[in-house]
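Next comes one such specimen:
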Amino acid sequence: MRHKDFKGRSKRIIGESSDNMKTPQKIAEDVYLEMKLSANEALNYAKLVIDKYEGVEEECSYKLKPLR
C-alpha cells in the first residue's frame, strides 16, 4: 500500500494510517482508504489498483456508464 502512485499531491489515498486523509475509512487492520474523492479520482484509482495488483481483476471491476 506504500506505492507512490497511491499518494496524491496533498493527501494519501491508501495508507497504513489515517494521517493526511480528509475522510478515512478503515477497510482492514492497518489499511485506510480515503473516501472523499471526485468521480474522476475514484475511477482513476480503481483502474490503478486493478492494474497494479495481479489477481484483483476477478474481485474488482469498474464500469463506465454514458451520461443521458
